[in-house]
Amino acid sequence: MLPDMQDDATEMPEAEAQEISHVPDHGEAMRIAEALLFAAPAPLSVEELSGRLPEGADVEKILQDLTELYAPRGVNLVRVAGKWTFRTAGDLSFVLARDVVEQRKLSRAAMETLAIIAYHQPVTRAEIEEIRGVATSKGTVDTLLETGWIRLRGRRKAPGRPVTYGTTAGFLEHFGLDAIEDLPGLEELKGAGFIEGRVPSDLSVPTPSDADALREDEDPLEDDLLQPLDMHQTEVGEE
User: Fold this and answer.
1) How far apart are CA 210 and CA 199, in angstroms?
2) How far apart are alpha carbons 66 and 62 in whole angstroms?
3) What DSSP string describes 102-122?
4) For the segment 174-191, what is each residue's pLDDT rounded down to a tens digit?
5) Are 165 and 145 in contact (CB under 8 A)?
6) pTM of the full predicted structure?
7) Gap between the Cα atoms of 156 and 168, Å rounded
8) Of 73, 60, 62, 51, the residue nearest 28 (C-alpha)
9) What are the tens digits of pLDDT across the range 63-113?
10) Which stretches within 71-224 are classed as H helix?
């Protein structure tokens, strides 16, 4: 009788066999990730998904496959503020327009202030006024703080030690940006019609950065500035 050579040929080391047996089914892991993303009230990070998926699941591959799967559909998987969420496809937003609860619109002053903070952060109130060319009321800044789109960063190392402002992850999520660097540059602003007419040769749009680390010209905030009542308190004679 011939030796059972076929059994010997198909035999594999025990460690390798155990490793293969622990690799989760990719399709099932995709289904779990899909369910988690649909049910989540807020965008999920890769770390949050990893903690809920089967051990050994390739999260990056799962997100890539789900992004491709939903690309032609009515909802798309997108990354905003470094996290993942499902959003209505951009070309279908008009269908849902009448079902959206209209929110209070920001004033022109608030929008200008928000844009300056986004592009020039960290920036002080005096610097905002210098760029705008007009005074900025405390109420305008307070409104942006209440929306959760800007935050107190630190204090400028300058006379009076004014507070510096920057944007938040909520700002990125609301405007559908993955990172602050995704804000449009000069050429994109021209193409969108936000900058019209003859543009000065020295006009430039700064490259924004919302890094958490304080810069060399910033000091940390004091504890008293973190109290909500003090933060929104109106100063006499300011407005």
Assistant:
1) 27
2) 6
3) PPPPPPHHHHHHHHHHHHH-S
4) 888 888 988 887 677 666
5) no
6) 0.61
7) 19
8) 62
9) 999 999 999 998 999 998 889 999 888 787 766 655 554 556 788 889 889
10) 93-96, 108-120, 125-132, 138-147, 169-174, 186-191
